[in-house]
Write a structure and sequence with these properties.
The complex is a heterodimer of chains A (466) and B (81).
Chain A (H helix, E strand, L loop, with lengths): L3 E5 L9 E7 L6 E2 L4 E6 L4 E5 L4 E6 L6 E3 L3 E6 L47 H10 L17 H6 L16 H10 L17 H10 L6 H8 L16 H22 L2 E9 L1 H12 L9 H15 L5 E4 L2 E4 L5 E3 L1 E2 L5 E2 L2 E2 L7 H17 L2 E2 H5 L3 E5 L18 E5 L3 E7 L2 E15 L5 H15 L6
Parallel strand pairs in A: 5-16, 12-17, 17-18
Antiparallel strand pairs in A: 1-8, 2-4, 2-7, 3-6, 4-5, 6-8, 9-20, 10-11, 12-15, 13-14, 18-20, 19-20
Chain B lengths: L2 H15 L14 H4 L4 H15 L14 H11 L2
Helix pairs in contact in B: 1-3, 1-4
Classes of the chains: A alpha+beta (466), B mainly alpha (81).
Chain lengths: 466, 81
């Protein structure tokens, strides 16, 4: 069976609209396994290594390096058997969903139809022709092929007028400008009535919808909007080493995500002061006999405590999607990392609640170093279920954070400071840290948030259990 | 280790943790964490790099000496062989 799958430009965060392949690590004919890094993608924020979600042979690369394309654009075609075993088959290829979702870890909103879900026999067509059909919103299964063995040719697809209501694809047809405006105004394209050709949404339609107040949309809609439009896409090259542009783009990406957060998420804020005397003494004792490379930082304890607490309060660990909470499958702890030269990125520590503290420390070092040298993995950019920001190194006492959508909580740690503190009726000087929680009031109430902070306190007072 | 060798190790370690800066241009008594915007992880990496390149054990209690280039150089000159 020749299972054909497209490797598409992945969405590496709610604030990503487009990306460019900086480097292909495979070429046609190469065998790849699920999980292999096959391309390096440049987003506005970082250079990210992206894994294949399929096992098979690379049939073709559809997009060259340096071309900026929207999220969802097909970049390569991977087939399940070696190409040698696959001449142009006279038999119809068994029905397959043409496009596999490239973001398996993201919550999938239930009400979005799966692309190409109807199982109709799919006629034979080359990847490029399939791609063209996708782009034009043409259901290739309904095209009568005029090539050899009923093969669907490029011309066949080009002669099909795209259907007025693109049933084959859930994405609204809209011009690139309309999509940008929709993202800017927080308008769900699905709610906009298109007045353009074949019902395509024009910029003016979006403006009118925004004025009517078409309402905020779920995060998944952003991704929908960011998928390739039916019209030709504006393609521009990514200038080499254009740091200024990169900085500006990152600023814009942060602006989009944070504006969306503050526009849509009703934040509530809680804070608690935690005495770290026991934790720091334990850490010191533990580090004493270790080489520098294996020493732990207080940050590792704080992160571990936050991850464990999130595991104990699952309502704070997950996503708000389509007016409902979708719990995370594990605690993938996003860590806000400031980049040298400006900007911020929050990749995830995978399954942090279950990592041994030494492993968490090692993973943290690795993550920070790769974030700053620009080699993060795609999964790290998309899987965070809750994020921690630690501005303590700058001397900030407390940070009241902005939630990174579609997550529902953000934990902040301030600087560890020696302060007067009453213990058992006596005043002493103790190392204290202010822990804050910004949480989405749609998903939880203050009581749940309070429980989270209580657990962080309890865990930091039992450092040996972390 | 001579003070000159110690300074070279320090400059080299600093350029690793803060690649976009010029550590050689820093005043010797400036707090490197402020001047180079190092966070606690950067500082740990800095100390680790120095410990490995000099072959000298550096305890957590010794960290304060490494807050400045001068302090670090003095420490290494005394303790590293």
């Amino acid at each position: 069976m020749n299972e054909r799958a497209e490797f598409v430009m992945p969405s590496l965060g709610a604030d990503m609209e487009s990306g460019a392949v900086a480097e292909w690590l495979v070429k046609p004919g190469d065998r790849v396994r699920k999980g292999d890094v096959i391309a390096v993608i440049d987003t506005d924020k970082a250079t990210i290594e992206v894994e294949s979600f399929h096992t098979g042979t690379v049939e073709s690369l559809l997009v060259g390096t340096g071309r900026r394309v929207p999220v969802g654009t097909a970049l390569a075609v991977i087939v399940g058997t070696p190409p040698a075993a696959e001449p142009v088959s006279p038999e119809p290829v068994p029905a397959r969903p043409l496009r596999k979702r490239a973001r398996p870890r993201r919550p999938t909103p239930a009400r979005l139809p799966t692309p190409n879900a109807p199982h109709v026999p799919s006629p034979v067509a080359s990847p490029l022709v399939r791609h063209l059909a996708e782009q034009r919103g043409v259901d290739i299964a309904r095209v009568r092929g005029t090539g050899p063995h009923g093969r669907v040719t490029r011309a066949d697809v080009e002669h099909v007028e795209p259907p007025p209501q693109a049933k084959v694809s859930p994405r609204a047809k809209a011009s690139p400008l309309a999509r940008r405006l929709a993202a800017q105004f927080g308008v769900d394209l699905a709610d906009v009535h298109g007045t353009g050709r074949a019902g395509a949404i024009r910029a003016q339609d979006v403006r009118e919808a925004a004025e009517r107040g078409a309402g905020p949309r779920p995060p998944e809609a952003v991704e929908e909007a960011a998928r390739p439009p039916a019209e030709p896409v504006e393609v521009r090259a990514v200038p080499e080493a254009d740091l200024e542009r990169r900085r500006e783009a990152m600023r814009q990406a942060i602006a989009r995500a944070m504006a969306k957060s503050k526009r849509e998420i009703p934040h509530y804020y809680l804070s608690a002061t935690v005495d770290l005397t026991g934790a720091l003494a334990w850490l010191r004792e533990r580090n004493r006999d270790l080489p520098v490379s294996r020493r732990l930082l207080p940050a590792a304890l704080l992160l571990k405590a936050a991850a464990r607490a999130a595991a104990e309060v699952p309502r704070l660990n997950g996503f708000w999607v389509d007016d409902a909470f979708v719990p995370g499958k594990a605690v993938h702890l996003g860590v806000a990392i400031s980049l040298k030269g400006g900007g911020l990125i929050a990749p995830a520590l995978h399954d942090a609640a279950r990592l041994a503290i030494e492993d968490l420390m090692a993973a943290l070092k690795d993550l920070v170093s790769r974030a700053r040298t620009g080699r993060l993995r795609g999964a790290e950019m998309t899987e965070a279920t809750i994020t921690v920001t630690n501005l303590g190194d700058q001397g900030v006492e407390a940070v009241h954070g902005v939630i990174y959508p579609p997550q529902v909580a953000l934990v902040g740690f301030g600087k560890i400071l020696d302060r007067p503190w009453a213990v058992d009726g006596l005043l002493g000087v103790r190392p204290l840290v202010t822990v804050t929680l910004a949480a989405d009031h749609r998903a939880t109430d203050g009581y749940t948030g309070g429980r989270f902070l209580g657990i962080v306190d309890r865990l930091l007072n039992q450092p040996e259990t972390l | 280790m001579t003070p000159q060798q110690a300074r070279e190790l320090i400059t080299s370690a600093l350029s690793q943790v803060a690649p976009d800066t010029d550590p050689a241009a820093l005043p010797r008594d400036a707090d490197i964490r402020d001047a180079l915007e190092l966070d606690s992880l950067d500082f740990l990496t800095y100390v680790q790099t120095l410990s490995e390149s000099s072959g000298c054990r550096i305890e957590e209690d010794d960290y304060p000496a490494f807050a400045t280039i001068a302090g670090g150089a003095d420490f290494l000159a005394v303790h590293a062989t």
